[in-house]
Structures are given as structure tokens and as C-alpha cells.
Amino acid sequence: MGFGLIVIGDEVLNGGRTDGHLGAFKERLGGRGHELAWHWVLPDEPAILTEHLRFSFRLGGPVFVCGGIGATPDDHTRACAAAAAGVELIRHPEARALIEGRFGESAYPLRIRMADLPAGCALIPNPVNQIPGFVLQEHWFLPGFPKMAWPMADWVLDRHYGRADPLVEAALKVVGVPESQLIPVMEDLGRRFPLHKLFSLPHMGDRPHVLLGARGRGGLDELMEALRETLRRAGMTFEEDSR
Prior knowledge:
Layout: E1 2-8, H1 10-13, H2 21-31, E2 35-42, H3 46-59, E3 63-66, H4 77-85, E4 89-91, H5 93-103, E5 116-118, E6 122-124, E7 133-136, E8 139-142, H6 146-161, E9 168-175, H7 183-192, E10 197-203, E11 209-216, H8 221-233, E12 237-240
């Protein structure tokens, strides 16, 4: 299953924070046999967030969204998710109880804002400080803090998506051939093996070559043998990739 990942925060785009979510989610998804289909980094700008979330809702999930669900003035994700889905932002009773239980009277008047969530959403448990994330239209909204977001994402994946056959990859090094000459080979194999994705990666240097291969599930032996035979018939030199 292909997942989207949206990371929200001006501090990632223009500040001193380096995004660690991309690598962490690739590892979590890949380890369960899933894959990351796309990745956006967006600013703390309500108009941009709302339009991108609206587009993502139309595409359909599953999507992880990290950041902007706190109570400070630059946290716009909760309101933008509601606007993008065309629903009201309401005080979620279960989220309110969790925040009151965590902070008591000091939950008011500001921390309680984190219980204002899009109508119809469900909660995602937070094992670190009990302030929940939420899910809306298979978009899983998590805090930006990795130590909270990552265990919450693990809970989502294990509870709702489980494991799939692992994604596998195989490739050949095609030597002395311009990448453009490999386009017909890729098109032919793409038609013959539509469930797999062909790729080519040119490498420069002392011994230039093109890494030509495929990614998919359920084994690549038949495709790779067809690729070898096609290259032999075309008189193209290749080597096995030893990565």
C-alpha cells in the first residue's frame, strides 16, 4: 500500500530544524511491506495548508500528516483540515477529557484548544503525553515532535494496516549505452509486467553506466530474465548489480 506523508512547519522549510520524518516513515512503512508514494513539506500558512489538504482528501488516503496540531498561534492544521473537509471545528468530548485529565485546571484557557477538532474525526492515542492526534478521511494527523509522532504512527500501522509482502528491487548495470536507447526496453517491459515499476539511474564517472531495474512484489525473477534476454538480443553489455 502506498502512503502519503505531509510534514508541516516553517521551521523545516526556513528554520534550523532538519526534517527527520521522511527517513523514519520510509523505514516504518518499508519494514511492514508498504511504501511511501509521495511526500510534501508545507509552511504554516492556512491558505496553502487548506488547499493542499483539500487536494489530498480528493486523492484519497492513507496519508500521515505531521505538525501543526498544537495550541500556539502558528498551529493551523486542525482548522485547515476541517475547512478542507467542509466540516466544523468542534470541541471533541473525548479529547477534552484527555486534556483535562492530563493538565487539570491548567488545561484552560489555552491547552484545551487542542481538543478543537474537525467534526466526525476519531482520535489517535498518544502514549507520551496523552494529547491525541486525529484521523479524518484516512488522513492521520500527528504531532510534529518525532518522539510522539513515530510511536503514534506505529500504532496506526499495526492496528489498521498490518503487514504486506515486502517491496523488492533488482537491477542490472548497462554499460556503454545512452539512457535514451533504453527507453524502448523499459516501455516493452512495462507493458509486459504492468504490476512492476521500471527505473533507470544514470551514473557518471570513470565508467559510466545506467542502473536499469524494477521494483515490485511477489518476485522479480521473470521480469529480470526478460530484461537480460532483451539486452542480449540488442547487443548491449550489462553486469549484475551487486548492491
